[in-house]
From TrEMBL, chain A:
<dbReference type="Pfam" id="PF01796">
    <property type="entry name" value="OB_ChsH2_C"/>
</dbReference>
<protein>
    <recommendedName>
        <fullName>ChsH2 C-terminal OB-fold domain-containing protein</fullName>
    </recommendedName>
</protein>
<feature type="region of interest" description="Disordered">
    <location>
        <begin position="119"/>
        <end position="139"/>
    </location>
</feature>
<dbReference type="InterPro" id="IPR012340">
    <property type="entry name" value="NA-bd_OB-fold"/>
</dbReference>
<dbReference type="InterPro" id="IPR002878">
    <property type="entry name" value="ChsH2_C"/>
</dbReference>
<feature type="domain" description="ChsH2 C-terminal OB-fold">
    <location>
        <begin position="50"/>
        <end position="110"/>
    </location>
</feature>
<feature type="region of interest" description="Disordered">
    <location>
        <begin position="1"/>
        <end position="48"/>
    </location>
</feature>
Automatic annotation (TrEMBL), chain B:
<keyword id="KW-0414">Isoprene biosynthesis</keyword>
<dbReference type="Pfam" id="PF22691">
    <property type="entry name" value="Thiolase_C_1"/>
</dbReference>
<feature type="domain" description="Thiolase N-terminal">
    <location>
        <begin position="4"/>
        <end position="222"/>
    </location>
</feature>
<keyword id="KW-0808">Transferase</keyword>
<dbReference type="InterPro" id="IPR002155">
    <property type="entry name" value="Thiolase"/>
</dbReference>
<protein>
    <submittedName>
        <fullName>Acetyl-CoA C-acetyltransferase</fullName>
    </submittedName>
</protein>
<dbReference type="InterPro" id="IPR055140">
    <property type="entry name" value="Thiolase_C_2"/>
</dbReference>
<dbReference type="GO" id="GO:0008299">
    <property type="term" value="P:isoprenoid biosynthetic process"/>
</dbReference>
<dbReference type="InterPro" id="IPR016039">
    <property type="entry name" value="Thiolase-like"/>
</dbReference>
Length: 139, 384
């Protein structure tokens, strides 16, 4: 683990070139989580990070929310997807970048600078990151 | 360890109320003490289940405020916040206080004031429990329900109509609950034609935003007869957590907190799922009634929807679920809901549920916080 990984709280980060990464953590037992956590299975600290934006995923389930909180796009289609990182399954959640989506669709992460208006909701804007990755179906 | 009795219970009218949080808590707390014929002077511990009075109303410090308003000073007091399962966690804290011998008389009051906020604002207050990665994508509790409902229907080949039948059943039950927010029957077509909120779930798959409060009075069973001819005993109780990040769970249709809290409660009570005569489940969304009824062991995984279709969970069915009308019809004032669930089971096992009464000696209440993030399961038996 580098200091950079210790300080971002398991949220998405930038790589050394400043390009955004979809940062997951790998733990000593080989499992990977997104987002990362300070401690993994068995209380073990993560050993390295994995950039999920370099992988594709499959849609596990999705919903379109029409009653969204302040600062969130409406409607807001969300999907849970599963990446295959060299045989290790990793699930993630996020907004969908297309108008249609279905269970079993293959998707790729696409970067978005601001997923919701940080100033509109109850959470302190400075307390977390607001950029991240949406999922776009692969034609 | 002392066995713990519930010797009094109350709940306010649920719905859109003029009172603010202090008034709601005092209303239920005072009524509970009167129900048991116990003076506020006798209260050793006073717990308040409440998720967000600071965020909703700008009023913090509600436990101390309630102790003063009830004239229960110098009782020890604390606020119990476990989001939507604050009520169940309060039951756990109150039970612990008596079981451990720390308190001879514990009053638990759960309450929330929400309806002065818009649906959008209230949804955001509740969604603030989510992980930053979830929050920035605009995840809400209803959207978790939509994601899980689609996965459940797809995985178990269940019809969309089965979810609607949960809403129909619980609204039908709520007609006979004088405290319920909605006392009106809804038919299946109304549910299935209502506006989409989180596809495939529609408006009538969701509980409303509610003001209300409920209370319980607990003491050691060894002295319960001094206060009440009839009382209920908490024979088993368990609490557990699941992942904060919802999508990290291995099976999206299993709530580990329900499984684990129930296992502890069943073992403590020395009963199993087949021994439960009536249950109050946390139907914040219709899909949750399926998940809990399966994770509590009432039905096999993926079969909960069939039980609803076959009428097994109707009031006159083999295992009545949500005779109170559930959160769906009764309403969901966050901190009050887990307390109100136990209120209903208390009434049922004492044979005091009026037109909602079913044949019940043993009842179970399962209170869920977040989207299964925190859960408390309690088992009650009547003593008459």
């Amino acid at each position: 683990m580098t200091d950079e990984h210790d300080t971002n709280g398991g949220e998405d980060a930038d790589d050394t070139d400043g390009a955004p990464v979809m940062e997951a953590y790998r733990y000593p037992d080989g499992s990977i989580t997104y987002p990362g956590h300070p401690y993994g299975p068995g209380g073990q600290e993560p050993t390295e990070t994995v950039d999920l934006s370099e992988y594709t995923a499959e849609v596990v389930t999705w919903t379109t929310s029409t009653a969204t909180p302040p600062g969130v796009r409406e409607p807001n289609t969300i999907a849970i997807v599963e990446f295959d990182v060299e045989g290790e399954p990793v699930r993630a959640i996020g907004q969908v970048a297309s108008e249609t989506i279905d269970i079993g669709d293959d998707v790729r992460p696409v970067y978005c600078e601001e997923l919701r208006d940080p100033e509109a909701g109850i959470r302190e804007p400075a307390s977390q990151e607001w950029d991240g990755f949406r999922f776009e179906p692969i034609e | 360890m002392e066995r713990v009795a519930i010797i009094g219970a109350s709940m306010t009218q649920f719905g859109q109320r003029e009172e603010w949080i202090r008034g709601l808590l005092a209303e239920a707390g005072g009524a509970c003490l009167r129900d048991a014929g116990v003076s506020a002077d006798a209260v050793d511990h006073l717990y308040v289940s409440n998720m967000a009075s600071g965020e909703f109303e700008g009023q913090t410090g509600v436990p101390n405020a309630l102790a003063h308003d009830l004239s229960a000073v110098p009782a020890y007091t604390a606020r119990i916040d476990q989001t939507s399962s604050s009520g169940g966690a309060g039951v756990y804290a109150a039970w612990q206080s008596v079981a451990s011998g720390a308190s001879e008389m514990t009053l638990l009051v759960g309450g929330e004031k929400m309806t002065h906020r818009s649906t959008s604002e209230a949804t955001d207050v509740i969604a603030s429990l989510t992980h930053p990665v979830e929050y920035k994508h605009g995840l809400t509790l209803p959207s978790f329900a939509g994601l899980t409902a689609r996965h459940y229907l797809d995985t178990y080949d269940a019809p969309r109509e089965s979810l609607g039948k949960v809403a129909v059943k619980n609204h039908r039950n709520g007609i006979d609950n004088p405290h319920a927010q909605f006392r009106k029957e809804v038919d299946l077509d109304t549910v299935l034609d209502s506006p989409i909120v989180a596809d495939p779930l529609r408006l009538y798959d969701f509980c409303p935003i509610t003001d209300g409060s409920a209370a319980l009075l607990l003491c050691p069973e060894s002295v319960a007869r001094e206060y009440a001819d009839d009382y209920a005993v908490i024979t088993g109780i368990g609490g557990a957590t699941d992942t904060h990040v919802v999508h990290e769970r291995a099976d999206p249709t299993t709530m580990g907190g329900v499984v684990n809290s129930a296992e502890v409660a069943y073992e403590m009570a020395d009963v199993g799922p087949d021994d439960i005569d009536v249950a109050e489940l946390h139907d914040m969304f219709t899909i949750l009634e399926f998940l809990q009824s399966e994770d509590l062991g009432f039905f096999e995984k993926g079969e909960g929807w069939k039980a609803v279709e076959e009428g097994v969970t109707d009031r006159d069915g083999e295992l009545p679920i949500n005779t109170s009308g559930g959160l769906k019809s009764k309403g969901h004032p966050l901190g009050a809901s887990g307390v109100a669930q136990v209120y209903e089971i208390y009434k049922q096992v004492l044979g005091d549920a009026g037109p909602r009464q079913v044949d019940a000696e043993t009842g179970l209440a399962c209170n869920v916080g977040g989207f299964g993030n925190c859960v408390t399961t309690a088992i009650l038996e009547g003593r008459q």
